[in-house]
């Protein structure tokens, strides 16, 4: 047993020494940020997010770093809402055919490229109707198309349509504002409006029958008109029964609705004046608003607006209400696209649509869907870059044999362009699909440039090696970042830069063993002293206490008596036996 204990003690000691030796010779393994997408021809899975990983350090203190992108998060989900007037897209007009072709194209691209695009459809008549909530454009394509082709009747309330679109876009907090797109297709006509953001309740106002109102200047009934029932032609009751030269535009023309609709600038001046009257006049023009029910649409109102040059008509309120909501959506960062449906019985409606886009598209109306398509499906297009700042702990291994690129499952071998630049996928014209540029020095970095679009379903996987050069010396386990940062700088299909995205920063650990402890110095035994013991005398330290000292003899006597008793008991027991 004694020998086994000694053997175990020796084994533990040898194991500890061996562990220290191995710890100094072999660095520890790394910690992963995320599992990387593997390269090779079998690679086809859609990335959910950008990834960066690093392998454990090998015997040469090298780590293999892998960048995989773009993820669905970095390609970014998008929302599109069509806002269509009551006729929907059933009419066989060019702009609607374009809209439906656009829907088919983005559905196909989303399916092929792993994109996250949702589409909703709002139709407006007298209220806002959400015909199709935000729906995946791939799985819900047929439902979206059916909603676009549907049709409604009764009234025109563009304000309600935009409010409905805003409500469903606002609710989708997972999508960034700049990736929320509105497609408004209209002839520019609208005469109803809403209050307090409620797109289900329309309002209007009416001059009633002007021939039943008395002109305060002539004290006679107004000569022209009929009851417009709060419809689109209410402005005529005011303009046709009053003098038109009471106020002038800045260009000298008469300050009337028909002149305001000649240009977006005039319309803005006109709406500013009547809005001020509506909100600030002591005549309280707002009191004449009423809900546009079916009964009101058929019978008009019992509280008509007095025919007055300063009285805002329903189309005035509808225009600035619509504009308020449109501008608030543009200010929130939503991408507002406006298309003119050029068949209409409302003259000059295009001017109002141009007025809406004055702050978002310089007053220009959209004519095709190519620009919008590029925003949606080419989030990471040519000229996008990845900048990788390596830092001080590691150096890039500038060796083509240790660099690889896999794109959509295809391996692209690096070609050395110069001492610090590599190209991948050489084209017939001598250019490369991708390039990698290395910059050495204190701010060592790599810049990877895309010369074609990248999508989540066809990820780009770049692999290269780094070597540890700044080795820690202090004993213990050290966690080291393989780089300072790696950032994707996307550019979309229109050449517009998007938000930068940071890759995770992987780490490796490196262990420095503690030094072996120094042996203890040998201690020599001491020789016996040649000096004789010193005799103690009475009263000195070490002498037996005498009578009167604090030492008591009683405990000693007690011990002697107890010992004697034990001996006597032993003798008696022996005799009995």
Q: Can you give me a brief rundown of this structure?
A:
The chain is 28% helix and 21% strand.
Helix content: 25-40%
Number of domains: 3
Low-confidence stretches: 1-44, 534-577
Portion in strands: 15-25%
What overall form do the CA principal axes indicate?
elongated
Q: What assembly state would you assign to the polypeptide chains in this entry?
A: single chain
Per-chain topology:
Layout: H1 2-25, E1 51-54, E2 62-69, H2 72-75, E3 78-85, H3 94-113, E4 117-124, E5 128-136, H4 141-149, H5 158-171, E6 180-186, E7 203-204, H6 234-239, H7 257-260, H8 264-280, E8 290-291, H9 294-299, H10 314-331, E9 335-340, H11 349-356, H12 370-377, E10 385-389, E11 394-396, E12 404-407, E13 410-412, E14 414-418, E15 421-426, E16 432-439, E17 445-450, E18 460-468, E19 476-481, E20 485-489, E21 501-502, E22 507-512, H13 554-576
What does this structure look like?
The chain is α+β, with helices and mostly antiparallel strands. The protein has three domains: 37-73 and 379-512, Immunoglobulin-like (Sandwich), CATH 2.60.40.740; 76-203 and 319-377, Rossmann fold; 207-288 and 302-313, no CATH class. Helix content is 28%, strand content 21%. It has 13 helices and 22 strands. The chain has helices at 2-25, 72-75, 94-113, 141-149, 158-171, 234-239, 257-260, 264-280, 294-299, 314-331, 349-356, 370-377, 554-576, and strands at residues 51-54, 62-69, 78-85, 117-124, 128-136, 180-186, 203-204, 290-291, 335-340, 385-389, 394-396, 404-407, 410-412, 414-418, 421-426, 432-439, 445-450, 460-468, 476-481, 485-489, 501-502, 507-512. A hairpin with a 3-residue loop joins strand 4 (117-124) and strand 5 (128-136). Helix 8 crosses helix 11 (349-356).
